[in-house]
Amino acid sequence: MDCTLMRSELLAYYFGTSERAADAGAHLLTCKDCLGAYLRLKHEIERGAGPERPSVAMRERLRAEVADTFRPSLSRRLRAWLERPVPRYQSVALAAAAAFVLAVVVVKRGDPPTTASFAATGALTDSARASPESLDFY
């Protein structure tokens, strides 16, 4: 392979798209100048020392576009959150919160009767019994 052709093939050889990769590899083993050019090109690409380096704004825009493209949807994030294993301490905390709410609801519903309700009926009635009976015997 000619050195001038080899220099034009270096970038394709580096990225693995060269149609004559076997010939280029054999030429790099025999020609020190082409090997040096290939190593300089490889160094520039891998270290980012070349003039093709993108600006900071371009990198940020690219990162934002990739994040928008690959960010899971709200339904997928919610499903993943619901399918995750729940540690025991969270279950205990949830049970304690539910018991507290239930206790508050029961206490609110079971308010004792006021004296105004006794005055309206005229007598004390045991509300736990099916038929109203006087509480006078207590």
Description:
The chain has a domain at 3-66. The chain contains seven helices and no strands. Helix 2 crosses helix 3 (32-47). It has helices spanning 3-15, 21-30, 32-47, 56-70, 74-83, 88-109, 115-121. The model has no long low-confidence stretch (mean pLDDT 77). By secondary structure, it is an all-alpha fold. The chain is 67% helix and 0% strand.
What keyword list fits this structure?
single chain, 67% helix, mainly alpha
Distance between the termini: 117 Å
What form results from the Cα inertia axes?
rod-shaped
> How many distinct beta strands?
0
Gyration radius from CA atoms, angstroms: 41 Å
Beta-strand content bin: under 5%
Topology pattern, helix = H, strand = E: HHHHHHH
Per DSSP, the total helix count is: 7
Average pLDDT taken over every residue: 77
- The stretches of 5 or more residues where confidence is low (pLDDT under 50) are none
The percentage helix is 55-70%
Based on helices, strands and strand pairing, what is the structural class?
Answer: mainly alpha
Largest sheet: none
SSE layout and pairing:
Blueprint: H1 3-15, H2 21-30, H3 32-47, H4 56-70, H5 74-83, H6 88-109, H7 115-121
